[in-house]
């Protein structure tokens, strides 16, 4: 799979934070039931790698990836656990090297034209804009599309169901990332039907 194919899996890439590994499979199944076919599980909690492993083994209907990849070792560990793509909030060179070497699609994070140009120079054209709403939102992406039309973005950070459409209508946006499909309260209470309902209500 190429990074562009990853971005084409759906207009919303759910960003999921889990405190309990046993929640991973039901959350993934709830998203699949709502029509979602991909999920970014963040490496922010100690259970993240186990959670990725469980989803990779038990939920064939979802393309599972790792988010919050901030070190080269995490890129390697996530792929060993079964992550089929990698997402990072930033793009330090050593991390981009490791993500490229991992041989799965990856979305390095940028928030400026200079960072985006550094990645373009090494042939990386699919990027995460982070933190999207804080660094300029749709206006920034529209401005970047002029001088850098080769780039395709998955903006993430502060995007809501209400603002997602403003991003998705842009020529250089393929999908948006967001945590709103899996709110901590619904995950903690095991409200899988509630997650399915949020997934169904996402922009299509
Ligand atoms: O974990 C990462 O790799 C990140 O870069 C941060 C996430 O993209 C945001 O935390 C998304 O969360 P919301 O803003 O709640 O939608």
Automatic annotation (TrEMBL):
Pathway annotation from the record: Carbohydrate acid metabolism; 2-dehydro-3-deoxy-D-gluconate degradation; D-glyceraldehyde 3-phosphate and pyruvate from 2-dehydro-3-deoxy-D-gluconate: step 2/2
Enzyme Commission number(s) of this protein: 4.1.2.14
Entry keyword Lyase: yes
InterPro entries, sorted: Aldlse_KDPG_KHG (IPR000887), Aldolase_TIM (IPR013785), KDPG/KHG_AS_1 (IPR031337), KDPG/KHG_AS_2 (IPR031338)
Enzyme class: lyase
Alphabetized GO MF terms: 2-dehydro-3-deoxy-phosphogluconate aldolase activity
Tagged with keyword tRNA processing: no
Keyword line: Carbohydrate metabolism, Lyase, Schiff base
Xref: CDD domains: KDPG_aldolase
Catalytic reaction annotation: 2-dehydro-3-deoxy-6-phospho-D-gluconate = D-glyceraldehyde 3-phosphate + pyruvate
Subunit structure: Homotrimer.
Alphabetized PANTHER family for the sequence: 2-DEHYDRO-3-DEOXY-6-PHOSPHOGALACTONATE ALDOLASE-RELATED (PTHR30246:SF1), 2-KETO-3-DEOXY-6-PHOSPHOGLUCONATE ALDOLASE (PTHR30246)
Family label: Belongs to the KHG/KDPG aldolase family.
Protein name (Swiss-Prot/TrEMBL): 2-dehydro-3-deoxy-phosphogluconate aldolase
Source organism: Actinorhabdospora filicis
Phylogenetic placement of the source organism: Bacteria, Bacillati, Actinomycetota, Actinomycetes, Micromonosporales
